[in-house]
Every structure is written in C-alpha cells, then in structure tokens.
Amino acid sequence: MDKIYHLLLSFFFVVISFPLAAQNTTNDPFPEPIKAEEGLVIVDVSEFASLPDYDEEPARMMILIDEPGTSRMFVNDMYGPIYSISYDGSEVELYVNINDSEWGIEVEYSGRERGFQSMAFHPDFGREGVPGYGRFYTFTDVPNEETKIDFGTDDGNFTHQTVLHEWRAEDPEAVRYNGSPPRELMRFQQPFGNHNAGQLAFYPLAEPGDDEYGYLYIGSADGGSGGDPLNLSLDLNSAFGKMLRIDPLGSNSENGKYGIPADNPFVGQDGTLGEIYAYGMRNPQRFGWDPANGNLFMADIGQNIVEKVSLVPKGGNLGWNEWEGSYRFISRSEVVLDDPRSDPDVVFPVVEYGRYDSLMANRVAVTGVHIYRSGPVSQLMNKVLFGDMVNGEIFWFDADNLPEGGNQGFHRILLRDHSGDSKTFLELIQEKNRKQGREAASRTDLRFGTGPDDQFFLLNKQDGTVRLLMPE
Q: What is the Cα–Cα distance from 451 to 376, expressed in whole angstroms?
C-alpha cells in the first residue's frame, strides 16, 4: 500500500512539475511590418464630383455604381439621399432621399456605423419590358418597430432593425424617382449597435437568360458587439455573419417576398437557412468579383487584431468566430500563434494585416474590393485592389498569383494629384478640408466605386468629394 502511495505521489509531482504547454498567444501576429516601398504603385487622381452637405455635415458616401441603362451613376449618402452623377461628373442631382417622410422609412443614422448602408440597381433597371425594369434595392438601418421580423436573435436588448427594400421607378430615366413607396423584402432585428449591415450587389458576370442572372448578394454582419457573443456567424440557422444570395423577384422564401435560388448550398437541409451562400464572417463590408474567372473576394473587418481579404466559395466557411484571419480566436486582445491555418474546413485569407503595423498607425478596418482587369490605368492591370477604411491606405495584390495569407503578399498604392507629389488618400482629404474651412479629418472612411469604361473612384465621408483614378 505504501508503495502504491509513493508511486502516486511521485506521479503527482511529475505532473505539476511539467504542466501541459501553454498556448502561444499574441495581439500582434505579424512582427514583420508591411513594406512601404516594395512594389509601390503611384496613380494619378483628380477630383471628379462633389456631393452637397447634409445638415452642414459632409455626405457619408458608401456606394457608387454605374447604371448603363440610363447612362449615369448613382451614389448614396448614409443620411438617406441617393444622388445621380453624369458620366462627366458635371451634374449631380438628388434622385431620392429615402429618409423623406413620404416613403415611410426613418433612417437610423446615429453613430458612425448606422444609416443607409448600401444599394443595388437591378441589371434590368433600364431595360423596358422585363420584370426588373425600374427596380433598385436599399439596405437601411431603422429604429425598432413593432412589426414582424424575418431574422433575429434570442438576445432581448435590441438596438435597431435593418431592412431590405425594393423600389420601382415608373420611368427609370427620370431625374427624380417617380415611383411608389418601397416594398419590404426582409427585416433583421439587430442585437447590438455596431457592424450590422454590409454591401448589396448583383452578380455582374451573368447575361440575361443565365441561371445566375438577377441574383442579389447581401453581406450580413454578426450582429455586433465584440467576439460574436451570441455565436451567430457559424450558426447555419442564423442569417447573421453570412453572405446571403436571393432572387428579389421570386417568392419561395418563408415570408413570400423574395426567392431562394435552388442551387444555394444549404437549400433543403434541416436546421439551415436556404438564403445562405457562405458563412463565418464578422463584418463583411465589401466584396467584388473577378471578371476574368468569377472569383469572389470579400473584405471582412476583424475584431481587434487581424484584417483580411478572402476568397468566398459557394458554401464556404470563413472561420469567424473560431478563427480571426489565419489564427485561432481567443478574445479581443489575443489570437493563438500555434498551428495557424490548420483547419481544412475553413477558407483562410489570401491577404491579412495587423492592427499594430506601424504603417497603419493602429487605425485599421479593411475595405475594398475591386479586381482591375480592364480600364485606363495601366499600372493597376490584373491587380486586386483593397484598402483600409479608417486611415485610407490603398493596396494591391496579384490577381493571377494569389498570396496565401500574411501581410507580405500585397503592396501600397499612393496617389499623385495636380501638384505632382505622391500622397496618401488621407493627406488629399486633409488638404481639401483646409480649403473648405473645415478641421482636417483624422480618418478617411474609404470606399471604392466603379463607373463606365471601367473607371475607378474613391469615396469618403469627410469632404464630399468623389475622386477618379487617372491614366498617366
């Protein structure tokens, strides 16, 4: 008996003397900084158009898109207006303010992240005689309303709602919207006030008659707060933290207001939503397709440590909230360095960067994404463009030789204005602010836009100016 006792005691001391190895964690998984000069591209830029202030504040631009059927572009302001812009930039007209009382929508634009989030024009908007004629879509934060919701959570502390609306213009070529109040398609009950909604976009590569033609993609964030506390992103029975894909002209959804494509990856599976195209996202603000091969890229804003751009395959799991970028997620202040990118079921980023990179000055949130395959700026050809929303840094990586994660596979873009000097986007905005008599902005809130003939635009929320990248 004594012998057994001593053996157990010896084992005990061995165990406590040699504990299991602790996880190797960090808040900075990228010790090597982004190289500021390697692969640097300099592009000319000019001021193209100006949007009016809203209540003496600069327009909060989010989306700029070409509408070829009516030969003009449209840009939105988070406060509620949609403006049309002529192809030469000389004419800016108010098309509709969705916050006007006649439409029955009260835009909830308090705070930096809430408001009129996104819009998309049906590819048939300007084609008379087809079902999509005159239709466009808006994704908008609104106050809590006593009305039926389509997607919610079990959390009882709801801050606001987000609604997808369909508008139908009687004459799409009219200067001002001339249709009826919009039709509601889906409504989210938001549990927290931050990062709730993302981009709307129609798949741009399909032609009329193709199965994919007229399908609307929707970026839906994880509901907010930090760390996805309600564990929604990986829940296939939740619409939060997903990319959704619908047919807005269909009717086979649960509420009968839109269609669910039959080839969506989770259609017909128990405990899943048929609307889901991909999942495991935190704040999928922006996405875009490669016109050469159909690759879908998404810029997904990270928690406090990793910002990333990823490919999004149909049915793909981008990992959040088990992974933040290539690393196991623990908390707002830690990721695990051990065994990065080790889950074969997760789609890991093509590029990523950290919050503490000295180039980024600790002000980061990824945005993008545009794949430049044709257009007048030769320096950008065959490059995937993305940027940092907050500080306005713009980057590129090779569209034909995709990186495999980390912060060394992409390079900076600087802008050259009429002075001939190379500048960051934030520096251009600050110069404009001083000319406007405004205090110089401390951030950019960068977004991209596209126009006819593959023109590429830069948007921001600080000076009301739309800028165009120019050939040399």
A: 12
User: Judging by beta carbons within 10 Å of its beta carbon (0-12, 13-18, 19+), is residue 304 exposed, middle or buried?
Assistant: middle
Name the stretches of the chain with pLDDT < 50.
Answer: 1-20
* 299 backbone dihedrals φ, ψ, rounded to 5°: -95, 115
With residue 138 as reference, give the H or E element that holds it: strand 135-142
* pLDDT score, position 17: 38
What is the helix (H) or strand (E) element at residue 433, kind and residue range?
Answer: helix 425-436
Of 352, 354, 387, nearest to 368 (Cα)?
Answer: 387
pLDDT of 7 reads 41
The helix (run of H) or strand (run of E) holding residue 428 is helix 425-436
pLDDT at 5: 39
State residue 197's pLDDT score.
Answer: 77
Residue that the structure tokens 């990248």 belong to: 469
Contacts of 46 by beta carbon, 8 Å cutoff, 6+ apart: 417, 418, 467, 468, 470
Closest CA to 269 of 237, 317, 234, 222: 237
Return the closest-CA partner of residue 95 out of 63, 123, 130, 142. 63
Unique residue bearing structure tokens 């199965």: 211
pTM exceeds cut of 0.85: yes
> What DSSP designation does 392 have?
-
Count of alpha carbons within 13 Å of 244, Cβ hemisphere only? 32
CB 47 within 8 Å of CB 431? no
Residue 195, pLDDT score: 85
Which residue reads 């079902």 in tokens?
A: 131
pLDDT for the residue numbered 446: 98
Q: What angle do CA 341, 344, 350 make, to 5 degrees?
A: 50
Distances (CA, A) of 307 to 82, 318, 472: 30, 13, 31
CB of 341 within 8 A of CB of 405?
yes
Which of 1.20.58.480, 3.40.50.300, 2.120.10.30, 2.60.40.10 would CATH assign to domain 56-374+397-408?
Answer: 2.120.10.30
* Token duo for residue 417: 């204005």
Q: What number of H helices and E strands is found in the chain? A: 2, 29
Could you give the C-alpha distances from 404 to 6, 9, 305, 365, 418, in angstroms and in order? 53, 49, 18, 20, 37
Q: What is the DSSP string of 301-363?
A: --SSSEEEEEE--TT-B--TTTEETTEEEEETTEEE-SSTT--TTS---SEEEETT-TTTTT-
- Enter the tokens of residue 179: 């249709």
For strands 197-202 and 183-190, give the pairing: unpaired
Whole-number Å distance between alpha carbons of 383 and 373: 7
Q: Residue 22 has what pLDDT?
A: 80
d(CA 340, CA 293): 28
Give the three-class secondary structure for 8: helix
